[in-house]
Amino acid sequence: MRALFALFIRSLREDLRARLPPILRAALVLLILLIIGANQRRFAWSGAPGREFLGMLMMLNLAFIGVAALSIFPSAIAEEKEDGTLTLLRMTNLNPLSILLGKGATRLISALMLLAAQIPFTMLAVTLGGVTQAQILHAYAILGATTFFLCNLAMLASVYCRTAIRAGFLTGIIGGVLYVGLPFICAITSFRRWRPGSVTTGGLWETISNYIFEANPLYAMGSLLLDYRRSAFLSKHVWISLGAGTLCFLLAWRIFDRYCAAAEEATGRVKKTKNGKPRRWAYVSRPWQHLPLAWKDFNFMAGGRFGFYLRLFMAGLLLLGAYGIAWSSYQRALEWAATNSRYSPDYYSKASIDARFWEQFSAIIIVLAGWIAALELLFITGRIFGAEKRNLTLSSLVALPWSVGKIIRQKILGCLAVLLPWVILAVVGLSLNFHEICREIMRKITNLMSSNEWGETNLLTAMGAIFYSCTQALLSLTVLVWFSLRIRRGALPATIATMTVVNVIFGITMDAYGRHRSDETAILLTGFVLSLIALIAMCRKTHRRIQLAAAED
Amino acid sequence: MEPVIDIRGLRHAYKTHIAVAGVTFTVNPQSIHGFVGPNGAGKTTTLKVLATLLKPQMGSVGVFGRDIVRDRTEVRRKIGYMPDHFSMYRQMTVFEYLDFFGAAYGLSQGQRDKIIGDVLALTDMAGRKNDFIQGLSRGMQQRVSLARVLVHDPDLLLLDEPASGLDPRARIELMEILQELKRLGKTIFISSHILSELAELCDSVTILDRGAVKYTGSMRGLISNNGTDDAYAFTLTAEHPQIVEALNSIPGVKSVQQSAPGEPRYSVTFDKEHLTPNMLLSAALTSGAQIVSFTEDVKHLNQAFMDLTEPGVRPE
User: Fold this and answer.
1) Could you tell me if B255 and B164 lie in one domain?
2) CATH code of the domain covering residue B297
3) Are B81 and B62 contained in the same domain?
4) For B232-280, what is each residue's pLDDT tens digit?
5) In chain A, N or C terminus with fewer CB closer than 10 Å?
């Protein structure tokens, strides 16, 4: 029994002694207070300010849990495999259960502690009105259960995969299918069933659909916030998540011996062709003469040609999926028009429905391409220098007769290739509705050039918003690179947490300045200037950090 | 002859911890220079300064007559730095790894093909050029590291404990490669915390302890106590007390010691300015001793190291 909990107790002890967890918990609590402070004016306009606040906080927590599920939880066992220390653990009295408890459960407890630390402060929402104490507790039960499920799912992936990156990727795919893909399919098939003249209710698919929706934390949270009478602490979502999480844990335990044997560690498993060449998914060319580092990162970080073609294939699938959604909507509109066109003949004319089809098809593609490109960019930025630091190869790079700037430029160039398929997808989306989009842009520009009732042109405000967004995006990426050089794991959650705190502070400053001046342009320009100063400071800090990290290798 | 490395008053501290405090020494061209010291002596910090990864906080560091801060890019082209850990892209093959670094140093494809063939032959890795690095043994990875350092044909090699973690055979083979590189005209600056490991390899040595230079000069000078004394050992077929009297009677002999009672091994320390090893050998033969071997006393080397460095762990 002592051996069973040895690693678990040691991890808990380390967590208690560590400086970072209590600081994180305190920062999160501070963030809650800052959100209340920053949004008190906006909440005052709402009929239910407490609910608004709770909704915002829950979404923030779900985002954190999602990021932790992709970055912190999957490293539990896989990091031991990567470091080659799993064999040493297996040589002791520790059995698979104790290793899973020690490595996985402590991460889960740390995450649950982060949630628990918030509860007393979130209770302040009751005093704002529009939300009950039971709703708050229920919301945290949903968060806790979701965390439990995702942590165990990530641990299962961690046992199965050889590296933490792969485990994170697998968790992301399964999570994406469960929380996005399946509800999406259910929504479409439900619509097909619900169309006029073919309504069927009940049945197995209906029951499965209900369970899929109930298992979705966003759906569960939405239902909870809409229904103040809902007070059952252990809802269907909680039971489903706890059950699925337990199942994942048991499965991880069951397959542990098979996938965590010494031979399965990160090294080895080199396959060759008959003529002695290494077997690879795709051909790797000779280094590009003037861009060798870009070649390296393209082939060995961004997935190379195989990764590129795979992304192109995925983009093609998305294109087909988007077409399916738009076509489904188009058919519904046609059916609807057949019976209701007399109410609004212009809106239900064939030409109008056709135009809306291309508009919807184009919009879905552009939004999907944008989201995926942003996610890819975040993940690749987290690895661009972090992987060099982890592999102890940064000193070899920095010792080249190149400036750090040249190293950064070539690395960015090599990794940008991952975005190309999504850029192509977005261009396809744009070209599908090109005339309409151009017309809309021209209309916006004309509006922006015209003066408002106070005689100010809106162009400056729009420019302020664009500059502010761009500097914020660049600042986030720079902070991510900096964190990846500072900490071994969890650079992405740390960046999101930091940027949230920074944005709340910026928001308060901008709000205070704007309230004084009553000028939206001034607010945005203040934000832009603040972000720009922070960006320049972070660029300098990151540049220096790269040199220091190379010397620390 | 202008020194390849010229360090004067180098000082570097990490916050409050002084890693290197006023280090001064030079290294001659086309020589192998050992950089020896116990763990935490400041060897790696000095090497990182020489490799231009750290800026010297005080003092001047010159490589081939160029300042490492002002002419950093030129210095980097002339040096090859091998850190004390495996700094490798494990998902590449050996050839891809060397090809990548060759291209990074601006070599054309033709030049790369030729030089990679040469360095793989030198390091005896030609047969494994299509192997993934992750599948290689530690000794082979060390060879690949060395090949990577040589790929741009640097004049100065900075090797940080290259033999650590290698088995005895791999160590010997590595030393043979270094000897060959010296013959090819390279200057090699090699750090280690084991002096005897470098005894046969190095022409000169610098001993560092607690951030300060304790000795710098030729290997022979270190053994012979700053150039005045030398030590040799006789191994006989049997114990022979007369050899002690015979050797002690020679002017210039400072001490003659039997290694242990009953053991036929005698160590002689003498003033090398007045005596030669031949004169000792002649006197020993005259005394009637049956000599099995007559060699330089290696124990003396370790003793010299122990005398120069302080015991215990360096205080913060």
Assistant:
1) no
2) 3.30.70.100
3) yes
4) 889 999 999 899 999 999 988 988 988 888 889 998 988 877 888 899 9
5) N
